[in-house]
Amino acid sequence: MIQIWNMKKKDSAAAKKKPKIGAAQIRVQKDLTELDLPSTMKTVFADPADLLNFSLVITPDEGMYVGGAFNFSFTIGPNYPHEPPKVKCTQKIYHPNVDLEGNVCLNILREDWKPVLNLNSVMVGLQYLFLEPNAEDPLNKEAAEDLRKNREYFISNVKSSLRGGAIRGVTYDRVQVK
Amino acid sequence: MAEVVAPNQPSGDWQGKYYHVDQVLETPGPRTSDAFAAGDQVKGFLRNQSKILVIGAGGLGCEILANLALMGFKDIHVIDMDTIDISNLNRQFLFRPKDVGKPKATVAAEFVMQRVPGVTVTPYYGKIQDKDDDYYMQFNIVVCGLDSVEARRWINATLVNLVDESNPDSLKPLIDGGTEGFKGQARVIFPGVTSCYECSLDMLNKPVAFPICTIANTPRLPEHCIEWASVLEWPRVHGSKKLDTDDPEHITWLYNIASTRAQEFKIEGVTWALTQGVVKNIIPAIASTNAIIAASCCNEAFKLATQCAPYLNNYFMFIGTEGIYSYTFEHQRRPECPVCGGETIDVQIGKEWTLEKLMEWLLEKQDIQIKKPSLSTDGKPLYYQGPPQLEEATRPNLEKLLSDLVPNEGEISVTSTSLPFTLTLRVTYT
Questions:
Q1: With an 8 Å Cβ cutoff, are A48 and B381 in contact?
Q2: How far is CA A159 from CA A88, A155, B224, B262, in A?
Q3: Which SMART domains match (chain B) (predicted)?
Q4: Is the pTM of this model over 0.90?
Q5: Residues B57 and B94 in one domain
Q6: What's the pLDDT score for residue A8?
Q7: For range A162-167, the mean pLDDT
Q8: pLDDT on residue B186
Q9: Each residue of A135-148: pLDDT tens digit?
Q10: Among A113, A142, B17, B355, which is most exposed with the fewest C-beta within 10 angstroms?
Q11: Predicted pLDDT at A19
């Protein structure tokens, strides 16, 4: 049987025993503790010892969605960062890129995810959706249509939805902050 | 030709059984290493002492088990958590129609033992995660024929963690084979010495994912309809109930939903098998590619066990999609690899040290140059610099005695913006 030990001895940097915790866990520690978020975003941990499940609140300070507070749940699986975190909006909101079930259309959450991206990139990406809703990638088709056809009308719908109003028969959650 | 004797002796061996294999074990060649002990010694090790573990008894695993047994490995263990499906029978040649539904590991072990007298194959029907370090310690070599990234990452991390500087036997060579259609790869990993599986994670093909808005609005492919059923409709209808991709009833539900959607959009090609393939991310398996890759893996196992020829250093890839192309190269370690990279420092700590004292000591250490470190032990936060809520929740720990937070010889994982890798502190109290 081959003796690799002699080879190993030569490589002095090789001798390092790693802690028995998952690579995903350490990566999440690094991602979370190094988050650099603007004052418009805040993370909330239901259980501070559970880093793999938490929520993010976005309160845009400009754009059409100013005045609302939007809640997203983050679930990080054991294959992170090979696989992206699972992100859902926990409220029913009127947004072209978020459907009524809370699914979010953001490229880096699916087809464009790469392990070099991190939780900060996802959060910044989510905030961007509120500054620049994108009618080209609709999940809520009506909202996208409204935005495409008549921006002013769309903006008034947004304002109404934030207050918990109904648009085309759908009642949205009240997400307005005082 | 060697003389053939009836193969029913108790040892399972008969004269000339290993005639061909012995040609490379009896005399050194120009490239055999000095450590090669030609003759009885090396044959004795291979046949009577070595113990080898095969992980996975599927497409690659069947080939690997057969090869190893025929090469002269006699103490083989195999782990697989799956049962035999009828769709496996086209390439997993240790299984027959009567075996459908039975555990792969058990059936494969029985078949090999019956076919190759004198070989003991010990099956374990279950997950690799069920087994502890002592179990993995008993083997000389581990060969993987897996289809899952998660399982590979687990066994890789486990074998890297197993390495104990004071015990040469703790270093277990890991041979990893993998195939996707006409493409495949075989590699040899010496945990902690060469590049590990985690080091090369960025080389993996991305799992196929479609933009969610395409799935929701403009499906064009049968896959779009299936993803619509699994990603959007399943959680909408079933709430928090998890989709079990191994449950045929769940697949049937998805198949029905996807078919309806496909009809609506006039898309053809949604089948039950495709539905299962898409949700389980199944890549077409080709028997001949499996044979090539399994053969490479087994050649390496044989060479590591006998030292009769130089081993693969360390990554062989095979691409049969456009003619044949193969390439062998030395994949480099990644210093910042979260599994085999990073640095470990042994720290002697006074019983009266608080966590805050340790933090100050870390910041003062010139050779690390660390800024704003975050610390955890055993996956639990000790002190986190952020986000604000976690900083606040962990701040009370700063005043606590370290010995109340971390056991003797416990390990602390340190991350910091200024550290591209993870620093591990192994603490002993004085």
A1: yes
A2: 22, 6, 34, 37
A3: E2_bind
A4: no
A5: yes
A6: 53
A7: 93
A8: 98
A9: 888 899 999 999 99
A10: A142
A11: 46
Nearest to B387 among A26, A35, A111 (CB): A35
Compute the distance between CA of residue B59 and CA of residue B112 in angstroms, rounded to an integer: 15
CATH number of residue B397's parent domain = 3.10.290.20
Mean pLDDT taken over chain A: 88
Q: Once rounded to an integer, what is the mean pLDDT over residues B319-326?
A: 95
Q: Which residues of B are catalytic?
A: 213
| pLDDT of amino acid B71 | 95
Tokens of A176: 């307005």
Query: Nearest C-alpha of chain A: how many angstroms from B117?
Result: 24
Residue type, B16: G
CATH of the domain at B270: 1.10.10.520
With respect to residue B100, please indicate whether it lies within any of the assigned structural domains: yes
- pLDDT at A10 (0 to 100): 47
CA distance B414 to A18: 12
Q: % helix / strand / coil in chain A, to the nearest 5?
A: 30, 15, 50
Same domain as B155, residue B77: yes
Q: What is the mean pLDDT of residues A146-173?
A: 93
Q: What is the DSSP string of B126-185?
A: S-GGGS-HHHHHT-SEEEEE-S-HHHHHHHHHHHHHH-BTTBGGG---EEEEEEETTEEE
Average pLDDT over residues B222-227: 94
**Higher per-residue confidence, B363 vs A44:** A44
Same domain, B129 and B29: yes
Nearest by CB: B304 against A2, A22, A79: A2
Q: In whole angstroms, what is the distance from residue B265 CA to residue B100 CA?
A: 37
Q: Which of A10, A11, A16, A95 is most worth mutating to test chain B (most B CB atoms within 10 A of its CB)? A: A16
With contacts defined as CB-CB under 8 Å, which chain A residues touch B339? Answer: 18, 23
B149: contact with A, CB 8 A cutoff = yes
Q: Look at chain B and report how many structural domains it folds into.
A: 3
Residue range B125-132: mean pLDDT, rounded? 94
State whether B58 and B113 are in the same domain.
yes
In this prediction, residue A24 carries a pLDDT of 81
Out of B216, B343, B393, name the one closest to residue A48 (CB): B393
Considering only CA atoms, which of A123, A21, A22 is closest in space to residue A79? A22
CB A34 to CB B415 under 8 A? yes
Average pLDDT over residues B337-347: 82
Residue B404 structural domain: 344-429
Report domain extents, chain A: 21-171
Assess whether B183 and B238 both reside in one domain.
no
Nearest to A17 among B153, B163, B305 (CB): B163
Q: A23 and B339 in contact by Cβ < 8 A?
A: yes
Are residues B175 and B314 both part of a single domain? yes
Residues B307, B194: one domain? Answer: yes
From the candidate CATH numbers 3.40.50.410, 3.40.50.720, 3.90.950.10, 3.10.110.10, the one assigned to the domain spanning A21-171: 3.10.110.10
Tell which A residues from 10 to 29 touch B, by Cβ distance under 8 Å: 11, 14-23, 25-27, 29
